[in-house]
Amino acid sequence: MLEDQKLPGAYRPISLLSTLGKIIKILIAMRLIAATKENGILPRMQIGFRYKRSTEVAIRLVIDIVYTT
After folding, report:
1. d(CA 38, CA 34)
2. Which one-letter DSSP state was computed for residue 52?
3. Whole-angstrom Cα distance, residue 60 to residue 68?
4. Cα-to-chain-centroid distance, residue 64
5. How many domains does the chain have?
6. Is residue 57 part of a domain?
């Protein structure tokens, strides 16, 4: 059994795919966030896909709109 682990074929590179996928996903998300921030693509009212935007921020925006109109 120990001799089998010394062979290169004993390791399973398939198990690394999920980890690599997560890393790539994070890198792509970071680049998209930076691009949208630099170019001002997303409107101020956009809550999803924004840093430090939560449900609480969304509720505050709705309340502000209701009270100002």
Report:
1. 6
2. T
3. 12
4. 28
5. 1
6. yes
Would the CA dihedral through 39, 41, 44, 47 be positive or negative? Answer: negative
Domain span at residue 59 reads 12-68
Model pTM score? 0.51
The encoded tokens of residue 10 equal: 């004993």
Which pLDDT tens digit goes with each residue over 18-60?
Answer: 778 889 999 998 998 889 889 988 887 788 777 788 888 889 9
The one-letter amino acid at 36 = T
Cα gap 36→38, rounded to integer Å: 6
Alpha carbon distance 19, 24 (integer Å): 9
Give me the DSSP letters along 15-40: GGHHHHHHHHHHHHHHHHHHHHHHHT
